[in-house]
Amino acid sequence: MSPRIVVVGSSNTDMVVRLPRIPEAGETVLGGSFLRADGGKGANQAVAAARLGAEVTFVGRVGADELGERAVAGLRDEGIDVSHVSRDEKEPSGVALIFVDERGENAIAVAPGANAALSEDDVERAGGAIETADVLLLQLETPLPTVERAAAVAAAAGVTVILNPAPAQPLPDSLLYRVDVLTPNEGEARLLAALPGDDATREATAGRLLERGVRRIVVTLGAAGALVITRAGEEQLVEGFSVDAVDTTAAGDAFSGALAVALAEGPSLAEAVRFACAAGAVAATARGARPSLPRRERLELLLASGR
Question: Is 253 an annotated catalytic residue?
Answer without folding.
Answer: yes
